[in-house]
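QA checklist item 7 of 12: single-chain prediction sanity check.
[x] sequence parsed
[x] length recorded as 471
[x] structure emitted
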Amino acid sequence: MRKTNQIQLAAIAFSLLSATAGGAWAQAASNQSAPPAVAPAVAPAPAVKPAASKAAPQTVDAIVAVVNTDVITQQEVAKRMNDVVQRMRAQKIELPPVAELQKQLLERMILERAEVQLAKENGLSVDDTMLDRAISRIAEQNKLSMADFQKQLAHDQIPYPAFREEIRQEMLLQRLREREVDNKIQISESEVDNYIAAESGNKQTAQELDLAQILIRVPENASAEQIAQRAKRAEEAMQQIKSGGNFAAVAAAYSDASDALTGGDMGWRTQDRLPALFVEAVANLNPGQTSSILKSANGFHIIKLVNKRAAAAAASTDTAAAPIQQTHVRHILIKVTPTVTAAEARRRLADLKERLDNKAATFEDLAKQYSNDLSASKGGDLGWVYPGDTVPEFERAMDALKPGQISDPIESPFGYHLIEVVERKTNDVSKERQRLTARMAIRERKTEEATNDWLRQLRDRTYVEYRNDDR
């Protein structure tokens, strides 16, 4: 249940809304030439011939790539290409050559398809109830009712069913990454000590950086020839930038990072939440300047310093020193697996809740017998947790309980829970909070690096067969 870097669904919604927003789209379209033609998903009808001749066969659709046991079709690529071009124009990102953009887009779709397949193999899913709650939060964050939110989507020519499925996939992939990446990240006490010591000496000069990146990924266990090929590609990207090429357009054409189609934009981040390699690379740059080519375990990077500003160090210090409410909590977790459906997990927990309500068993005994996580041996005891320690779904349910009260079955990215609040307290825990903040910052930095490494490994072991002739 410990929280990782959650995908910000509000940001996803904003991106989707802005992608085809009428005013922004019209303004962007008026300032740019028409996009290069994308190969149609359905071939045009043949010219009319004399009655004696037979009509030529028409291609309804074609397979572009085989991904393990699944396929990506020409229609899927064409639709996604149209969406991406509209989004890039609305965000005023210069379009790269269509051939390069199509290659990038196809690689993105291949990786997404491989992730979805892995998620299904591991029994992960996002049911309609969980999806509806997430979309309701998106509407709330945009200060709209659900009815008004759907009207806004319709006005922006975004079909609501398609929007739902895109959010469902984003949530599914986030759950997969939490399972595959976050659970394997370890942070030592010495790392926390070093972080706090470094921050103590940098409070007066702490900065936030707005960066953009280009990543040329190198396969795991790559040969010397493969490394040379990827290095050459990085050099080509760098040469385009040096020749006056737009960084965002070059990122869209060359980068293997997940942010490639948004121009490599990484957004504002404090220095402690960025890889040390990136911080060092831009330390002596002015806004608008670009680093040299950097080499990491994941491949080759080019970093652009978009802007920088002073970080609000004083505010974080005040927050750390303020009294904070802690909750002593325990839970019973039933995970969704290939053999345990979401409905079955809820049913099992409802049965356990009934036994607890009837005093037929103790929470501790049931947790030891039925819970699917490491806390089972301790009767489900998670100890004292701080605000922000757990995922939002768990924290909201926990905060709504009084000491001694047990929740109904609650869904989170980890499965379904029964939650019991044992007790609460409010203390001045500035030192403990300082260590927690440090741990979260280190985790965020490590998560990004580990996620890139995991995606590289996933792509390397995915069987891909290209069916188009020019690959």
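[x] summary fact logged: The longest strand covers residues 415-427.
[ ] second reviewer sign-off
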